[in-house]
Design a protein that fits this description.
The complex is a heterodimer. Chain A is of the alpha+beta class. Chain A has four helices and 20 strands. Chain A has two domains: about 170 residues, Jelly Rolls, CATH 2.60.120; about 140 residues, Beta Barrel (Cyclophilin), CATH 2.40.100.10. The longest helix of chain B has 16 residues. The chains are: A alpha+beta, B alpha+beta.
């Protein structure tokens, strides 16, 4: 069966859990910005958790189904309709052959995941269907979806309708959003006072926020520890000899606006990084709209591990409930 | 050189071999990242060597970050005693310097540049003490380069010139990055040259363009059929200055599927190179000429 894309929304892309293993060549892992929501959406329709879904940013697409399927929408609060009739998000429902899936305006969060029983079945590239437009990889012809596209869907045994994720098991960021940071990498390049200021200040998500990275503004500029710049690094105190960047790492070009690299990260470059967002909080970043207030919170490795454990337990609990 | 180990969040270990660039730091980082790969540590998902550092990504559910750190540190001694010699290849990359496409982009983003009155090449030649752009271009292509890192975006090589430090060309990056760079631009930032594998944002100064694609996700280009990325760390590059007519010929040959890059297998030994740079480079270029 295929999905006929009547309108594509703002930026809708095919994503799964990504393609690890090629970052050393500059090809990032990609995949859902909010992996938790993609996994849950897949569970609701009876797919493997890593099946390819549609990642919708801010504005939903309009899709006609050529065959009946079970559908679930998780992540951002984006009210969903079937032939104009409202359906619950974070729950499984049927869309029959000939019916049209559409969306109202976004109420909360930034990215919704549409899972369809059988999963989107475009050809994988380097082991994943995730779309990486910069490298023209994955998705449909290496690009986001467009009106007029027909997306193949895999075959599946029909899942159950009426499954639902209880509100307390859903996850969206709070306001202000709390993003936990493990200081490290080139943390030593900034003064102690500046480091404290980074955590004390309230920041906002800047308009430049996409799959590659999220930029933040509103906090005080960082002060650097004086040094003679090492050979090959470049003259600005925020420059280093080009090295690798971690997913979640926080670079601050010129000491001004922090940028957190996300799933479509550039794999390296010449800016210092002061640490990284812990893995447990990466999903939240994908749900932040521009202008959302954000506080960075300092944690140690024990705190990062505990947070990761909590996320794992939450997913385990959902698996059991849907079991 | 003093190695510095640090955590990058809970999923990465970052190892800085040296805070300044040198081939010694590059070789040690490559040896260590190879040692990590050969150790086949459970839970490791990505190993990324860079110019003078490397990064390991792992699954903390399989191996704890502290344990991962301990195992990587244990590999340092082994890497220090490893031979600084590699079997690699030298590749000739044709370059049309001062081409119309990067020139158009140079002019379009002039307000983001240190010297809006001239071109990137005018500026680079002047701050490196050359009397003319032509002399600067000669310095850029006369001696070979070493691919010390692949990354940033899909398959982009960073190249480090195989000359004494005092002869290395250095230029700053744009004051503010451009939102556009033509595909296959030959760029320059810090002490590194690069080839932009795809069109997109960039902060390096722009000197020219190569007609030879280095990334092909479709894998239809003859020499990229086996893998979509051309470069790997340790490749040696010789820029070959070409004129517009030859540029057009190569573009047509690539499209026709008949273009084959000139490549020779060579051995690179860091100690021999450090002892006699001119002699080592002459041998490398000889191997290329014979190919």
């Amino acid at each position: 069966m295929t999905l006929k894309i009547i309108s594509h929304g703002l930026s809708t892309s095919i994503q799964d859990l990504g393609r690890p293993g090629y970052f050393h060549l500059g090809i990032p892992i990609g995949g859902a910005m909010d992996r938790f929501s993609l996994r849950v959406a897949n569970m609701l329709v009876g797919n493997p958790e890593d099946a390819a879904c549609l990642e919708v940013v801010f504005l939903g697409p309009k899709i006609e189904f050529t065959k009946s399927a079970i559908v679930a929408v998780a992540g951002a609060e984006l009210p969903v309709r079937v032939d104009g009739e409202l359906r619950e998000t974070w729950s499984s429902f049927e869309v029959k052959a000939g019916q049209v899936l559409s969306f109202d305006f976004l109420k909360a969060g930034a990215r919704a995941y549409i899972a369809i029983s059988g999963g989107i079945d475009t050809p994988p590239a380097l082991g994943s269907r995730s779309t990486y437009p910069i490298g023209a990889l994955g998705g449909l012809d290496g690009r986001n979806i467009q009106a007029g596209d027909e997306l193949p869907v895999g075959t599946s045994s029909m899942g159950k309708t009426g499954l639902n994720i209880h509100e307390e098991l859903r996850r969206l960021p709070t306001t202000p959003a709390r993003l936990r940071v493990l200081p490290g990498l080139y943390w030593h390049r900034i003064t102690e006072e500046s480091g404290n200021g980074f955590f004390d200040d309230e920041w906002q998500v800047a308009p430049e926020a996409d799959r590659m990275g999220y930029r933040f503004k509103g906090g005080r500029p960082l002060e650097f520890v004086d040094r003679e710049q090492p050979f090959g690094a470049g003259a600005d105190p925020s420059n280093i000899v080009d090295g690798c960047y971690c997913y979640g790492s926080i670079q601050v070009p010129g000491g001004k606006e922090p940028i957190v690299l996300h799933r479509d990260a550039v794999s390296g470059g010449g800016y210092f990084t002061l640490g990284a967002i812990i893995s447990a909080d990466m999903d939240f970043i994908g749900q932040l709209q521009p202008h959302t207030p954000v506080k960075f919170e300092k944690v140690n490795m024990a705190g990062a591990n505990a947070a990761r454990g909590e996320r794992k337990q939450l997913l385990e609990k959902i698996r059991k409930e849907l079991g | 050189m003093k190695t510095r180990y640090t955590h990058g969040g809970d999923e990465h270990i970052y190892v800085e071999i040296d805070d300044e660039m040198s081939l010694d730091a590059f070789f040690k980082s490559l040896s260590m990242s190879n040692a990590v790969r050969d150790a086949k540590i459970d839970g490791v998902t990505e190993i990324c060597p860079a110019n003078a550092s490397f990064q390991v990504r792992f699954d903390p559910d399989v191996i704890a970050p502290e344990e991962m750190m301990r195992q990587i540190k244990n590999l340092e001694t082994q890497a220090e005693t490893a031979e600084k010699r590699m079997n690699t290849r030298i590749v000739e990359i044709p370059v049309l310097y001062q081409d119309p496409w990067t020139h158009e982009t140079v002019m379009r983003f002039r307000e983001r540049h240190q010297d809006p009155s001239g071109t990137d090449l005018d500026y680079a030649a002047r701050i490196n003490g050359f009397d003319s752009v032509e002399e600067f271009i000669t310095a850029h292509h006369s001696q070979p380069w070493f691919v010390s890192m692949v990354g940033f975006v899909a398959g982009l090589p960073f190249l480090y010139q195989l000359v004494e430090r005092e002869k290395q060309l250095q230029v700053p990056k744009y004051l503010s990055p451009r939102t556009d760079t033509p595909k296959l631009t030959v760029g320059y930032g810090g002490c590194f040259s690069c080839i932009y594998s795809v069109r997109g944002a960039g902060g390096y100064q722009m000197f020219g363009i190569t007609p030879m694609p280095i990334y092909d996700p479709e894998q239809t280009i003859s020499y990229l059929e086996d893998f979509m990325v051309f470069f790997r760390p340790g490749d040696i590059v010789k820029w070959k200055p070409i004129k517009r007519a030859e540029y057009d010929e190569i573009v047509a040959a690539v499209e026709a599927g008949t273009y084959q890059p000139r490549i020779a297998e060579v051995e690179f030994d860091l100690e021999n190179f450090n002892a006699d740079m001119a002699g080592t480079n002459a041998k490398l270029l000889e191997a290329l000429n014979d190919a």
